[in-house]
Design brief:
Strand 1, helix 2 and strand 2 form a beta-alpha-beta unit. The radius of gyration is 14 Å and the shape is globular. Helix 1 crosses helix 5 and helix 2 packs parallel to helix 5. It is built from five helices and six strands; from the N terminus they run H-E-H-E-H-E-E-E-H-E-H. The chain is 36% helix and 22% strand. Strands 1, 2, 3, 4, 5 and 6 form a six-stranded mixed β-sheet that branches. The longest helix is centred in the last third of the chain and has 22 residues. The protein has a single domain, classed as HybD-like (Rossmann fold). With 164 residues, it is an alpha/beta fold.
């Protein structure tokens, strides 16, 4: 997970408020990565809001619009052709070639909608998974990636909360 801090710092930019949206299925091994990140950050509030979108992240568009963050970070497991556990920001142009876990609405459409509605910076951060089978445990590589993302995000978001 080399470079995760830089990846997250770039996604947050100079935002004064940040929304984090975790996506995925907790029943399908590595697909739970985004949900685990949201679960571990769920105690944050104020200028940082965390949403657990599961398989229907679009259900939170209303709450995100009301919050009006400067930056929205969407975390999900993705099949990007990388090494398991590797994280990458996926641009809207690349989303058509990336396989995400099943969602009722494609993330690309949801991200474009929110960008039009509130004009915030939106970053979809995919974590390459290894095992998406039902009832599988999260792979060690993805679990380590989640640990790294949560650790770095806690530090970066804490600075936003303190207005540093």
């Amino acid at each position: 997970m080399n470079g995760v801090r830089e990846l997250l710092r770039e996604a947050i930019g100079d935002a004064k408020s940040v929304a984090v949206l975790g996506c995925g299925s907790e029943l399908r091994g590595d697909d739970a990565a985004g949900m685990e990140i949201a679960r571990r950050l769920s105690g944050l509030s104020g200028r940082v809001r965390v949403y657990s979108g599961s398989n229907a992240p679009e259900n939170f568009t209303g709450e995100i619009k009301k919050f009006r963050p400067d930056a929205l970070l969407i975390f999900d497991a993705a099949r990007m052709g990388r090494q398991p556990g590797e994280a990458a920001v996926i641009s809207p142009d690349e989303m058509d070639g990336v396989s995400f876990s099943t969602h009722t609405l494609p993330l690309k459409i949801m991200a474009e909608y929110l960008r039009r509605e509130i004009g915030c910076r939106i970053s979809v951060i995919g974590i390459e998974g290894a095992d998406y089978m039902f009832w599988a445990e999260m792979s060690p590589q993805v679990a380590a990636a989640v640990d790294s993302v949560v650790s770095e995000l806690n530090e970066l978001l804490f600075m936003i909360l303190l207005n540093i």
